[in-house]
Amino acid sequence: MKINDKVNLVLLMMMAILLPACEESDYKAGDCSAGSICASESTFNEVELIPEPVPEPVPDQTAYIEKDGVTGKVLGADYWVNAVVCFDNNRNALCDTSEPSTVTFEDGKYSFKASDIIASISSNAPLLARKDSEQDSKGIALYAPTPINSADKNINITVFTTLVHSETQFNPYTLANTASAQESLKVSVDGLSIDGFGFANEVLLSGQDYLESDVESGVELGVDDVMFAQIDAIATSLHQAQSIAATDIYKAVAAMLDSMYQLNTYTTSISLESINVQNIQETEVDISLSTPHVEWDIGYIEEENSDLDVQGDYAVVGSKWHNRLIVLNLAQEIPSTLSFNNFAASPDVDRDDIDGFTGASEQSLANIRITPPSSVQSVLVGVEKKNKSGSEEGADSGVGLYRANFSNPSEIPFQRFAGVSEGQDFYSFPDLNAMSLSSDGSRVALSGGNKKMVVLQTDDFSLLNEFSSDSKYRAVILNEDGSLAYVSLSAPDRMEILDVTTGTKLTSLSTGTEYPKEFKLVQGSELTQIAWYLGKSNILSIYNVTDPSVEPVLLHTLAAQSNITSFDVSPDGTLVIIGSSGSLVVYSIENNTSKVLKTLLIEKEIELVSTPLKVGSIAFSSNNRALIATKNALQTLDIAFSEAPSAWSDETKQAWFDVHRANQ
């Protein structure tokens, strides 16, 4: 070993000894006590620029392997080999890296792992096949309606399934109904459809392999030379249509179908103009981020929002590290800043003073909840110790629940960290992990790494009940009147439903190797739902917890673009917004189905020069507006729906038919 290498090794060993206080801290730069050796701030610059862990590369699959999920074949005029097959979650006609994808092998065979596609099926994402692995602009695409279950077999993607899915999206007579679409496209005994022009029988329209012989398949397909010529003609027309609208293939296929019906022919050529007039016949929705955004100065480069809460015309954003409360007025179209106040901070908000008072890693504002309007409205603030492995000096000082006076939202009074005695304005709770306020504002719960959870009366912080466990309490949320607490615990990882009054556990659900990181509860007149995600996951799960004594039942699984950072559910439970490092995904939930309404890539939607792109907190302010907090800025996300297709009159449907399907 060279001398320089030995010196470097010794320095590294010294740094490892001198840096215990930096372990497991969320404070990415400069969070060590005086005298310690720490990485300089310039090493990190922005927390959000630290890349997420990259998964281990998957070895290239060289032969077909049937997995436990959806399987099938891809075939046009022949079998597609080495094609890309995916669930098109964002409906952009491409197989993006964030979407579950596979490739086809001999005889066009493909197969998915069931656990990879649950969220895609839940959101009704279509199956998409691209003929070329590079997905260039000349590549033809075929697709099929969403399978019913994640383990369905023989789900073939063919010329005919492409037409069927197109009808479910564009034809108001067969909207979102695969069986109706198949009936509409079907030829009758005399070879004609009800409208005098058809495509195939019900067997082929359901996706049967028409390249496989009748003897091998055991199914009477009714495929002859005439039908093969028809298939080849449709495939040729598909290629022409998609070649002029490569990223809008769904509209291109719809325009091609219109032309075929109008001209009574399978060989047709369409124009870009006929593609542009197509509209997917489902509830039209306009989702847009506000411009301009609201932005405020930060006290330190590492400062970022930790939580966001909304009550009436006010929103409060809390910043962690240099603790502040930012109050915003929502009574106007674009929110404005009412106040920007230090809270639970050192007098001059100087970082050295904070470390000198609290130890090597500072206490940090973590949770915010605004109490409902009453005679005395307030903001409840949870402060936690971000690093517990370093100096114990002042380790528990000031950790717990604070009350901020909200009588004048334009001027929340300054509050020195740990400057209040325990009482109705401060409740000491060492090792705080999370805080929740009941919807009616009467009770507040605190969960802790000290394996304890308490439920307090909000008005005076008096203790209602205390819970102890052999595990650490993590996330917590109370129901409307605070009579039930939904908590997550680690080692073993699980969620529990607790009766606050009696202190008894009503039910429990194991969550595997991770615990729920965050809860949102939606209480309707007939159904109570709870949503959560597990650590380092891009899947949000929604469960039925209407009967708290029964184990929660999974209703929906929704996928984000990458690991979830925050999410919220609209008050009426019909919309969900999921945030990850640089994107937002908006879902609608109706009855037993969920689907993606829009995926927003933040850097393409807005220009935030001084604001990193990580989505910090999300909160609905109404059923059709949400607030999105990034590092030190706030955006509004507006969601506007037009008339639902189910409300269309027969006259409106006929008008569509006259434009799109009437013979020329």
Automatic annotation (TrEMBL):
InterPro entries: Quino_amine_DH_bsu, WD40/YVTN_repeat-like_dom_sf. It comes from the Bacteria. Keywords: Lipoprotein. The keyword Lipoprotein applies. This is Lipoprotein LpqB, beta-propeller domain-containing protein. It comes from Colwellia psychrerythraea.
